[in-house]
Design brief:
The structure holds 2 protein chains of 2 kinds.
Chain A (H helix, E strand, L loop, with lengths): L7 E2 L4 E6 L2 E6 L1 H7 L2 E5 L6 E2 L4 E7 L2 E6 L4 E6 L1 H5 L3 H4 L8 E4 L9 H7 L3
Antiparallel strand pairs in A: 1-2, 2-3, 3-9, 4-6, 5-8, 6-7, 8-9
Chain B lengths: L1 E4 L13 E2 L3 H6 L3 E5 L2 E6 L3 H10 L1 E5 L4 E6 L3 H8 L12 E7 L5 E11 L2 E6 L4 H10 L7 E4 L4 E7 L3 H7 L3 E2 L13 E6 L2 E6 L8 E7 L3 H12 L4 E3 L2 H10 L35 H6 L7 E6 L11 E3 L9 E8 L6 E7 L9 E6 L2 E8 L9
Helix pairs in contact in B: 2-7
Classes of the chains: A alpha+beta, B alpha+beta.
């Protein structure tokens, strides 16, 4: 289980785990709950360049479609094959096995702290 | 991550017009997430909409439909009034029979689709959609002029609970407090209703639903709703019964090819376009509202409702456009409801397309957020239970 107090967050309801120059990205439990059962995820190609704030993938539930935004500028170094195979991992373990992509970045932009994100979602 | 809900009218944001079901606390206690539906805060799911969907197909689910509208029609002219006010011939239905019908506008469009139950020679219950409660009631009341009939909106007095799924019969039989059934449930046919009691108070038990499964819809006074809900849940504990939200209800009815007002049916939809020509009875001797427009027919070339199936996992959803080819510049249709079918495992949709694309087996393309994906026209429903 990921220690969510160590994560950074975005206003698009994503979490970012920073380890050196690698950012691991997923969607928050709040976002997963709002989406409902996730049935399909589309992730960017490994090696692709992504620009912070742009749409780089999709997360579909039975009810709706969520967009995945790149939280940082960088290069995708890994995608979670397990979550492509079993999209329900986004619901069952959003902060852990439901991670989506890893991005190598040069500069980390300003992201939300756990307290700021909690305030954003009213918890 | 942002999301846009595409399949439930009025559910994208929580407007402040909040109304609560008499069962609201039961849903809170069960950990439900809520959505706005026609101004009501209703449970969208309890834990997982897929699990709730599968439970209804395999065992049973319990739905709170208390937001729906109940309109009582009573008086010596009740039957002839309904023949005049609605598209079907309601005067011929038997006591304790139900019939699906349409409330048409003068121009032939659909004000609402509804179910009519005959509770007596001169007494009928109409169940209308929550979002059309006032439009339906206003039209029904206006059409009562000249008939010896009273038309009363009793929506606030009634709670409506549906138990749906292959185990629904066993659950209802095992439910404590349900007595005085006018019909043995074992022999009760589909689209029939019977009177009964729950803890000494009036209860109506209808064998109807909106899921494509066997099941019952139970009408009773709102004050007793929680007790009945809890009694059903207790009886269902050994029958796989789970509370089920509106998200699963929407995918269940879509698989069953059942139209949803605001999606497949609108004020601008002619019944024949929606495949509901059979619901309009032009054999009636007397006039009814919308008759002249229906007899004149819609304009030539109007779009018609079809089913679409596709491969893969990316579902076309409501409002996505249909194209006849990969490079066609103008669209030839639009999806009104669509989802990755939980039961079938592939994308399904209902869509309006130009008539030349409506033939079964026609290949079309759905614009899924900028990518045209192939789909095939198929017959409705997508799912039919094995009886």
């Amino acid at each position: 289980m990921t220690d969510t107090s160590q994560l950074h967050y975005t206003a698009e309801h994503e979490w970012v785990l920073v380890d050196g120059s690698i950012a691991t990205v997923g969607i928050t439990a709040y976002a997963a709950e709002k989406l409902g059962d996730v049935v399909f995820v589309e992730l960017p190609e490994v090696g692709s360049t992504v620009a912070g704030g742009t749409v780089i993938g999709e997360i579909e539930s039975t009810k709706s479609v969520g967009e995945l935004f790149a939280p940082v500028n960088g290069t995708v170094t890994a995608t979670n094959a397990a979550v492509v195979e079993s999209p329900e991992l986004v619901n069952s373990d959003p902060f852990g096995a439901g991670w989506l992509i890893k991005v190598e970045f040069d500069t980390l932009p300003t992201l939300l702290s756990p307290a700021e994100y909690s305030a954003l979602i009213g918890e | 991550m942002t999301s846009a809900d595409s399949s439930t009218p009025g559910s994208t944001d929580s407007r402040n017009t909040e109304r609560f079901s008499p069962l609201h606390q039961a849903h809170v206690d069960a950990g439900a997430s809520f959505t706005d539906f026609a101004g009501w805060q209703m449970p969208v799911r309890y834990s997982s909409d897929l699990a709730e969907h599968h439970a209804v197909r395999a065992e049973a689910g319990l739905f709170d439909l208390s937001h729906m509208a109940e309109i009582l029609v009573e008086g010596p002219d009740a039957a002839s009034y309904l023949d005049s006010a609605l598209a079907g011939k309601l005067s011929v239905i038997e006591l304790w029979q139900a019939k699906y019908s349409l409330l048409l506008a003068e121009h032939g469009g659909i004000i609402d689709d509804l179910v009519v139950y005959r509770l007596g020679d001169t007494r009928f219950l109409i169940v209308a959609n929550a979002g059309n409660r006032f439009a339906a009631f206003d039209a029904l009341r206006a059409r009562a002029d000249g008939f010896a009939v009273s038309v009363v909106d009793q929506s606030d007095d009634y709670a409506l609970i549906a138990v749906q799924g292959p185990n629904a019969l066993a659950i209802l039989i095992a439910t404590e407090g349900v007595t005085d059934l006018g019909t043995d449930l074992h022999f009760m046919k589909y689209y029939r209703i019977t009177d009964a009691s729950f803890l000494g108070q009036p209860l109506l038990v209808a064998r109807t639903g909106y899921t494509g499964e066997d099941g019952f819809e139970l009408y009773l006074e709102a004050a007793r709703a929680r007790e009945l809900w809890d009694a059903l849940m207790s009886a269902g504990a050994e029958n796989g019964l789970v509370p089920a939200g509106l998200a699963s209800r929407d995918t269940l009815r879509l698989e069953a090819g059942m139209p949803l007002y605001g999606h497949e049916l609108t004020l601008n939809t002619f019944p024949a376009q929606a495949g509901l020509g059979r619901v309009v009875n032009l054999g009636k001797e007397h006039d009814f509202v919308g008759r002249a427009a229906i007899e004149a027919g819609p304009k030539a070339g109007v779009s018609v409702l079809v089913g679409l199936i596709a491969a893969g996992k990316r579902a076309g959803r409501a409002d996505y456009e249909i194209f006849r080819s990969l490079d066609a510049e103008t669209s030839d249709g639009v999806i009104t409801s669509g989802a990755l079918s939980p039961t079938l495992g592939y994308p399904i949709a209902m869509a309006y397309v130009t008539p030349d694309l409506a033939r079964l087996g026609t290949e079309v393309y759905v614009d899924v957020r900028g990518t045209r994906l192939p789909a095939t026209v198929t017959s409705l429903p997508f799912y039919k239970r094995v009886k």
